[in-house]
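ESCALATION

Customer reports they have been waiting on this structure for their group meeting. Please prioritize. Original submission:
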Amino acid sequence: MSLTIRSAVTLANGVKMPLLGLGTYQISGDDIKKSVNWAIEDGYIHIDTAASYCNEELIGNALKEIFASGKIKREDLFIVSKAATSEHGYENAINGCERSLKKLGIDYLDLYLIHWPGVKGLQPSAPENSVTRKETWRAFEKLYQDKKCRSIGVSNYTIKHLEELKKDCTVVPHVNQVEFHPFLYQQDLLDYCKANNIALEAYSSLVRGQDWENPTLKEVASKLGKSVSQVLLRWAIQKGVVVIPKSTKQDRIKENADLYNFNIPKDLEEKLDALNQSKHICWDPNTVL
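Update from on-call: job pushed to the front of the queue and completed.
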């Protein structure tokens, strides 16, 4: 598979979403400005944030300087944010998007996601989660219709959540962002999303540094002459899955983008597939009714 840093998946509505992005979870202060600048210098054109990361304004300030410098234009970037659990419900979601746009200093998002299927203040087993999710999605469809977002989607949605949404929506989610790596190889979800023309996007692709000493992972990295992080990221994008690794280190940001001069052969890819333990290192959305 011939890929470059500009390679993209085509969403159901024709929008091109870059396969590689910069994740910004838990990055704040001066680190945000440095990370965003380094990423753009290294060819990244996709930046992922969320209301709950509390760094949208800092990213907006960095982007304002970058746009003013002429390094890149707004229309050449793919900017993603997400509605927090407190921003569920029709009016909350509309207002949440407006807040994110204002903080980021932009007129539209390339992708806006529902961050979590559960609603703040409700128990995961509460049936009201389902009712409120539907109201939130109605607001997302309105935001999409009003061109506040070029595409809309969800995050941490299981097949059950997606099936529920499909029964009551006008626009099927363009993207589903979930935890996805060899130790949580959600093949059923990947197959479902492909069958329904929903792009799958991975977070925690690097397993937060856990399991990097796994013998199979080290063996594959050694055979390919690549780092463990490069192997993990390449494994995902070869499956057509979007990745958004985060880092505050310039050399790591550069390394995470150096994925295009090698391929993981089928036999080694299958070894990585076999690492699946259904292991969540983050939260498990299956707990949400």
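Sent to customer with the following note: The chain has a mean pLDDT of 97.
Escalation resolved.
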